[in-house]
Amino acid sequence: MGKKIRKKVGAKPSGKKPSGKPTIKEVAVSESIKGLLGGAAELRAFIYGETTILLAKEMGKWHISISHPQRDPTWEEIKHVRYELVPGNATMAMILPPKSEYVNLHVHCFHLWEVRA
Question: Coil, strand or helix: which one is 53?
């Protein structure tokens, strides 16, 4: 499906680096998520610590959804995921659409969209 994800060297089976920091681990995309995002040309799912990440290529542009079950993802989590999963030459942004178009299916989820710089 195109882009390869950089693998972390030295990861322990616990999903943590020797330094104790979590690694990004690819997991299966659930059928319910596939149903919601069926139009994505490329759809992958990841776990990073306690965050869940969906990575999609939609209409030729990258889209990252990152969520945590009890809190908002931290800036460090968002930044790490962005630079590990999306090519470095892509410009990503968090966008607040007009209120009439705003959708929130998860209270602790943020979206990053590729924008043309």
Answer: strand
- 62 forms beta bridges with 57
CATH class of 24-115: alpha beta
Nearest by Cα to 87 from 64, 107, 104: 64
Band the pLDDT of 16: cuts 50, 70, 90: low
Question: For residue 86, which amino acid is it?
Answer: V
| Residue 1, pLDDT score | 45
Answer yes or no: pTM beyond 0.90: no
Domain spans, the chain: 24-115
E-assigned strands of 28-116? Answer: 42-48, 51-58, 61-67, 91-93, 109-115
pLDDT at 5 over 60: no
Q: In terms of C-beta density within 10 A (0-12 exposed, 13-18 middle, 19 or more buried), how is residue 85 classed?
A: buried
Cβ partners under 8 Å of residue 105, min gap 6: none
